[in-house]
Amino acid sequence: MLRLLNIYFYVDYVYLYHNQIYIEDKEYLKEIIVYHSMAILTSEEILQKTQSDCVKKLAENIIDVQEKEIDYMKQLIKYQ
Length: 80
Hints:
mainly alpha, 3 helices, flat
């Protein structure tokens, strides 16, 4: 019975999350900051490994743009 209840809560959570039920502006921004931070982290890692100029340029651009967007989103959160 407990296992069935856990499955129910998990399915319910996935449904709510997938449909963004109860996700408001601050929660959205916080999650996007995490997503952008992962893009920065993986881009910094690939810069250490790649020999491709195209990949280096892309990674540098991702880092630059995502850092600016994170700063902007933090300001939005601060003033909400």
